[in-house]
Amino acid sequence: MGQIALEGMEFFAFHGYYDEEQKIGNKYGVDLYIDTDLHAAGASDKLQETVNYEVLYRVVAEEMQAPARLLEHLGHRVLDRVLAEFPYIHGARVSVSKFNPPLGGICHRARITLERRQS
């Protein structure tokens, strides 16, 4: 068992509860952690024996382009896609951050974290 992580992914996207947020956009961060068996890839040194990082990034990037009102919804969409694309992984955790959220004061980022296990 092991973990693959894509940390610090950044996107400019048009999410937000308020219509204005969806018009002007904002910077978002995503951290993704995949729990999977890394033994075969470690032994064989073959890409087809593991989760392809490029595919993981593409999945996240595609979901980040589709507007959402809530970070919670966005995180669930990312998990849904990752688990659908890689049914053999054991689970995944995603954190989605909105930089400088419009809260009326100083806040560097708002973040949600979701985790799901495959059944």
TrEMBL record:
It comes from the Bacteria. Residues 4-116 form the Dihydroneopterin aldolase/epimerase domain. Keywords: Folate biosynthesis, Lyase. Its EC number is 4.1.2.25. It catalyses: 7,8-dihydroneopterin = 6-hydroxymethyl-7,8-dihydropterin + glycolaldehyde. GO terms for molecular function: dihydroneopterin aldolase activity. InterPro entries: Dihydroneopterin_aldolase, FolB_dom, GTP-CH-I_C/QueF. Transmembrane segments: none annotated. SMART domains: FolB (SM00905). It is an enzyme of class 4 (lyase). Gene3D superfamilies: 3.30.1130.10. Pathway: Cofactor biosynthesis; tetrahydrofolate biosynthesis; 2-amino-4-hydroxy-6-hydroxymethyl-7,8-dihydropteridine diphosphate from 7,8-dihydroneopterin triphosphate: step 3/4. Catalyzes the conversion of 7,8-dihydroneopterin to 6-hydroxymethyl-7,8-dihydropterin. Belongs to the DHNA family. PANTHER family: DIHYDRONEOPTERIN ALDOLASE 1-RELATED. This is 7,8-dihydroneopterin aldolase. It comes from Hymenobacter citatus.
